[in-house]
Write a structure and sequence with these properties.
2 helices, 40% helix, three-stranded antiparallel sheet, Immunoglobulin-like, four-stranded antiparallel sheet, 2 domains, alpha+beta, 175 residues, rod-shaped
């Protein structure tokens, strides 16, 4: 075979492929989707992707906010150690109440306190109040429905917000 024959055959085969593509295009590609349907499909796909991104972003922001809130609480609580003092404590046996005057010498308000009473190192009773101890001033706390505290070994007043903030109650006479 001559060189010219090979070139002619290649041209012929390329021409055949081009003709096939043109015929295929004419036969099968005449129908397409209308521009309106194409636009609706693009908008639907875009909205689906935007919804997925919004869901992911909101859960991501919530998890980060929760993390930083916990970090802030840790910093807040670590600066509050040993910043409350008990000025006075009285146990009213008839009404079953313990009244305390507590001085918060820290720089933040404390919301909620628990009074933990230890008996003979084996029995513990806890009483809670939701009262707030304002920063920089004495406040009165009332613990209600207190059972007989006779024979207790130790009482601890602890913040519900910051468990590291606590003080031992040295004396609480019965009235």
């Amino acid at each position: 075979m001559k060189k010219t024959t090979i070139i002619r055959e290649r041209r012929t085969s390329i021409n055949c492929i081009i003709k096939f593509i043109i015929e295929f295009d004419k036969k099968f590609m005449k129908k397409g989707i209308s521009p309106i349907i194409g636009t609706v499909l693009l908008i639907a796909a875009t909205m689906t992707i935007a919804g997925l991104l919004a869901f992911w972003a909101s859960s991501f922001v919530q998890s980060q906010a929760s993390y930083f809130s916990n970090q802030t609480q840790k910093i807040y609580c670590s600066s509050m150690e040993e910043k409350i003092n008990i000025i006075n404590c009285k146990y009213y046996k008839e009404s079953g109440e313990i009244w305390m005057i507590v001085d918060n010498i820290g720089s933040y308000d404390l919301k909620g306190m628990s009074l933990i009473i230890f008996y003979n190192d084996t029995y513990v009773t806890t009483y809670k109040t939701n009262e707030t101890i304002s920063a920089g001033m004495p406040s009165t706390l009332t613990f209600k429905n207190v059972q007989n505290i006779t024979g207790y070994n130790k009482m601890i007043l602890r913040s519900l917000e910051c468990p590291t903030v606590e003080v031992e109650v040295l004396e609480c006479p019965t009235v």
